[in-house]
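Sequence of SocA family protein (Pikeienuella piscinae).
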Amino acid sequence: MSYDPRKAAQTIAYLAIRNGRRPLNIVKAVKLVYLADRESVMKSGFPIQDEPRVSMKHGPVNSKTYSFINGEYDPEMCGWSEFLSDRSGHRIGLADEKLDIDDLDELSDADIQVLDEVWNKFGQMDQWALVDWTHQPNNVPEWENPGNSSYEIPVERMMRALAIEDAAGQAELVKSLEYAQSLVKSL
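Predicted 3D structure, token representation.
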């Protein structure tokens, strides 16, 4: 996979802009990022973020994005801090209050449309309502309770839960595209 921390940061920045430019609770932010990937897979067959996803105690999580939020990588090296401030008080917000949607050049129009749909559906929920919602098998059947550990959520399992036709073939197509993108970025 070719994870793009700049795109992930812009995804959260967009959600913070939709939140009235106020910081987002971290649990809420990671749930919305996961739900946006899920919605994008349902609409186009491809997630917004190219990264592993896992089941954790509080629900599904995009693991690399969660690691960046937790400060496990240098935010200066990848453009993350250009869009997001360091986490503070279980919140993450915009690095610059003047940041505008036009500054979010990694997000396609389709990505923004998906983010708007996810925000319209889930934006008013707090983090614990989102945790409860994502724990419901009817809502997110690919999530498995890992206890205090974590379990991988392969994109194919997400696709099967979403009733994507030929989930195995589509998952392979996603992996092929991610591989091709990683080759182009390395040039």
